[in-house]
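Data card: per-record layout.
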Amino acid sequence: MTHAVRPTPRRLDAFTLASEPGNERLALARVADCVADVGLGAARLERLKTAVAEATMNAIEHGNGNQPEIPVEIEVTQNGDDITVAISDRGGVTHADSGDHADPDLVKKLDGEQSPRGWGLFLIRNMVDAMDTSTDGQRHTIWLTMRTTGDAHDEHV
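The structure for this 157-residue chain is written out next.
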């Protein structure tokens, strides 16, 4: 029996940001810089940047309550063709995604049947190849994965 050798994940960057509105722009710029040479096409890179910005905004606002002294932690790794960005906050179970969130319905939102908010996780899920969340005590992490080997049509979006 032959076992496939899986590459060891390689850390491309790890950093923290103060939980202040606007710092999502710093996160997306730094992530974009560290993945510049890994083979993501331009459209896939833009999608990853959008997802990173949205997830970082959620961590700042919902996870850490806009408290600058509580950092958002971001780690970028590469494992073969997968680029994974882990964004962690201290929101714990109060911020954890239980998976029970309904997809936004524009008509219901316009009719007042759904909150006008609530687009974040929907947007993130549809920007990356995979999204996972985990909560370990007070630490809540969202994992965003983008493959460097995306569909050809992605580059024409």
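Known properties of this structure: The chain has one domain: 10-151. The two ends are 43 Å apart (CA to CA).

See the next section for split statistics.
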